[in-house]
Automatic annotation (TrEMBL):
Gene3D superfamilies: 3.30.70.100. InterPro entries: Dimeric_a/b-barrel (IPR011008), Rham/fucose_mutarotase (IPR008000). Pfam families: rhaM. It comes from the Bacteria. SUPFAM superfamilies: Dimeric alpha+beta barrel (SSF54909). One of its GO terms (molecular function) is racemase and epimerase activity, acting on carbohydrates and derivatives. Transmembrane segments: none annotated. This is L-rhamnose mutarotase.
């Protein structure tokens, strides 16, 4: 399945956000893949962040990551950098942006 998400980085933390993503811990990358993700790309336009990820089951992926210490630490770090923190795990696959058009 393919999921698109929209988040916002705090205007005063853009550089920190990008630096953090250049150093995503190997343990977290491995956990995300083990939970079923095959790809995850984030684009930034100003403070708007657009994520597209492909995974077997988004809700299951979030549930598997939810209790992992490496993910908990990462989410705490992101909470400091994101303008509005959304708990995607609570919404599961329903948290994705609706598809408007595809070619």
């Amino acid at each position: 399945m393919r999921i698109a998400l929209h988040t916002k980085v705090r205007a005063d933390r853009v550089e920190e956000y990008e630096a953090a993503h250049r150093e995503v811990p190997a343990e977290l990358r491995q956990a995300i893949r083990a939970a079923g993700a095959t790809s995850w790309t984030i684009w930034r336009s100003g403070t708007d962040l657009f994520h597209v990820l492909e995974c077997e089951d988004y809700g299951r992926m979030l549930a598997e990551l939810d209790k992992l210490p490496v993910n908990i630490a990462w989410q705490a770090r992101m909470a400091e950098l994101l303008d509005v923190v959304h708990d995607y795990s609570a919404d599961g696959a329903g948290a994705g942006l609706p598809v408007v058009w595809e070619l």
